[in-house]
C-alpha cells in the first residue's frame, strides 16, 4: 500500500481543474496523447492554462488512468491508477530537467524534482558527498555543491546556476567502478564495526489507532505488526541496540511524523513493518522495499538490507519470496538513514494468515530481522549463509 492518504485521490470518472492539471503533467512527460494525437514530451509549463470551462470539463478517462498507472510503475509508486498527494507531487517533480531552473537550498520549502536528482548524481560522480540521491535539495546537497564550486574556482554560493551547470557538464566522472554512494555508504558501515552495541534502530509498525489496516475476523494488520515490532524490539535490545518504536498500540502517526521521529533520533536504520492484502486469491508471500527510482538513484545500504531481511524471513518461515523492489514512497525517501519496508505475508491469503497467526512464526520473523541487521554490519568474509546466522548468547 502507498502513502497517498491526505487528499481525496482523483480516479476514473472525476472531472475538474485538478484532472486538467494531471493531464497537463502527463502530456508534458509524453505519457498522454495531446489534443492533436501526438505524445511528444514538452518542457515544464505552468499547470493547466486552459479556459475555466475547459478545466471544468476535463475528465479522468481510461487513457488518463492508463497513463497514471504507467507513470506510477516507472516511478516506484503504488500502482492503483489514482492520483493522491504522493503521485501528484511526483508528477510535478518529474517535469524538471537539470537546467530548467535555478537550484538552491530553501529550509522552509525544499526544492524537489528530477533536476535535483541529476545534480546530486553528478556531484557524487565528481567525488563529492551531496547526501542521499533523493531529489530533495537539502543541506547535504548544498554543502557538496559548495565544495565542488570552491575547488573549481566558482562562486561557492551553493546555488546551481548557469556557470555551475557549464562546469558540471564539462567535467568527466572522477569516481568509477561502481555507484559512488554505494562505495561511500559501504565503507562507512564497515568502519563502524561488526556489532549492534550503541546502534540506534527505529522500528515502525504500520497503521495503528483509528487505522487498523486490513482486517481478517478479529485480526487486524495494526495489531499483528505491533506484535512483530515488539518481538523485534526485544531481540535487538538484547543484542545491545537502542531501539525505538514509532508508535504505541493505539497511535497512528502520519508517514511524515514517522520519518521525522527516526531522523530526530539520528537512527542508523529504519525498519517499517506491514502485512499486505489483495483481492486476488493468489496474492501471498514476503516482499521488501527500499528507496529507489528505478533509474539509478537509490539507497544502496537500504537495498542491501531489504534483500537480507527478506531472505532471512523467507528462509525461516517458508513463505513465498516476492523479491525486493525500489519505491519512492516518502516513508523511505525522506528518512536520513537506510530505510526498508518489510511486508511479511498476506493477511488476505488463508495460508499466509494461518502462518502469521502462529506466535512461533512471528518469533521466527523477528529472529530473521535480527539476523539481517547483524549481517548488515558483518565484514563480507564473516557473513554466514542465509537462514543460518544465530547471534551469540554473550556479546
From TrEMBL:
One of its GO terms (cellular component) is outer membrane-bounded periplasmic space. The keyword Hydrolase applies. Residues 259-374 form the MurNAc-LAA domain. It comes from the Bacteria. InterPro entries: MurNAc-LAA_cat, N-acetylmuramoyl_amidase_3, Peptidoglycan-bd-like, PGBD-like_sf, PGBDSf. GO terms for biological process: peptidoglycan catabolic process. Keywords: Hydrolase. One of its GO terms (molecular function) is N-acetylmuramoyl-L-alanine amidase activity. PANTHER family: N-ACETYLMURAMOYL-L-ALANINE AMIDASE, N-ACETYLMURAMOYL-L-ALANINE AMIDASE AMIC. This is N-acetylmuramoyl-L-alanine amidase. The lineage of its organism: Bacteria, Bacillati, Actinomycetota, Actinomycetes, Geodermatophilales.
